[in-house]
Structure formats: structure tokens, C-alpha cells
Amino acid sequence: MRLSATLRTAALAAFALAAADATAYAGSGTISIKIVEAGLFIGGSAGSGTLTYGDKSYALSIGGISAGLVAGAAEVTFSGTANNLSSVDDIAGIYAAAGAGVAADRGKGVIALTNPKGVLLELSGKQRGLMLNVDLSGMAISLK
Q: Residue 93 has what pLDDT?
């Protein structure tokens, strides 16, 4: 009996180390995107981008719909990092603000967004045009 308890403890320790090791290998990449958003009460956005992960670049497709106080048109370009990637497929998904409120402002114009797979985008950029609501929450990213 004593031996089986020791084996169980060793198996649990090995499992915990393997799980921690898998988390340690979650990688990051660089991302650049360009989005055009336009609307009046109901808005839409579309764009494209590039994820560089490892030594490869992947084309991205970006889209979304917004409602509420939406008026105007703007072109927005962002660049930054994509963190917590276990594989390139993790980038795909619908992104929401990382934290409470609209796209979380991390200071110096850095916006943080997350997807259900745990990927964290930290983006900064600039806007051309006038848009009363440039909210990136609900932005969908897919691999082309």
C-alpha cells in the first residue's frame, strides 16, 4: 500500500511538471493589422494583417460589427505582440477587451484584447479619419 501511494504522488508530480512545462512553451509573435471601419448607428469593419510567429509569416483576415453610437469612417493601423500562442491556430477567434470596459487602454496608446484561447494582443497604432466609436471588442481574426 505504501508503494502505491508513493507511485500516485510521483505520477501527480510528473503530471504537474508536464502541465507547467506546456505553459512555459506558450510563445509570442508580432502582429500588424489594418482595419477600415464605417457606419451610422450600425457599423462594420474589415481588414487584413500579418502574424509573424517563429520564422514564418501568416496572412490574417479581420472583421467585425458594432452597434450603438457609431458614426463616421476611419482607417486604423495597429502593430504589437500576440502573446500566449501555443500554435499559430490560436490567433483565430473573436477578441474582447482584456479587463473591464471598452478595449483596455494600457497607457501610451496600447490596447489589450484577448480571445477565448487565452491569446493576448497588445497593440498600439494610429487612426486616420473620424469615427466616434472605434471599439475593437468583437473583432474577429482568422487565418487566410
A: 96
pLDDT score recorded for residue 98 = 67
More confident residue, 52 or 135: 52
Give domain status of residue 6, yes or no.
no
CB 135 within 8 A of CB 104: no
CB within 8 Å of 32: residues ≥ 6 apart: 49, 50, 77, 78, 79
At 126, phi and psi to the nearest 5?
Answer: -140, 160
| Grid cell for residue 90 | 490560436
Domain that holds residue 40: 26-143
Q: Where are the beta strands (DSSP E) in the chain?
A: 27-53, 56-85, 93-97, 104-105, 111-114, 120-131, 139-143
The count of domains in the chain is 1
Q: What are phi and psi of 17, to 5 degrees?
A: -65, -40
